[in-house]
Amino acid sequence: MALVSLKPASVAFVQTLIEERDINLNLEELSLSEKSPIVGKELRESRIREKFGVLVLAIKRGEESIINPEPVEKLMAGDLLIVCGTAENLTSLEKVAAGE
């Protein structure tokens, strides 16, 4: 409840993402396979945003959470990417993450 009073616009935005049916943005978790061509690359080298129109919000690596990862963060097999994008774009990235 304190978050609502401190950051009402942020809370409203997240609530809209969750509840609105006509907004075409999704939050998704994608696991990086060792077969993925983006494994071993820095985030900027992967060009996820440019190629797929998807934002990488965080990387979960084991017990570590890397929030708002730097462009030089290296992507590793087993990383769980927390991403935001359209369903279509996320599906395309999911295939690359899986190494398909």
UniProtKB/TrEMBL annotation:
User: Which positions fall inside the RCK C-terminal domain?
Assistant: 15-99
In terms of superkingdom, the source organism counts as: Bacteria
The GO molecular function terms of this record are:
monoatomic cation transmembrane transporter activity
Pfam hit, one: TrkA_C
> Some GO term, biological process aspect, for this entry: which one?
potassium ion transport
Q: What PANTHER family does UniProt report for this protein, alphabetically?
A: POTASSIUM CHANNEL PROTEIN 2-RELATED-RELATED, POTASSIUM CHANNEL PROTEIN YUGO-RELATED
Could you tell me what this protein is called?
A: Kef-type K+ transport systems, predicted NAD-binding component
Q: Which organism does this record belong to?
A: Pelotomaculum thermopropionicum (strain DSM 13744 / JCM 10971 / SI)
Gene from which the chain derives: Kch
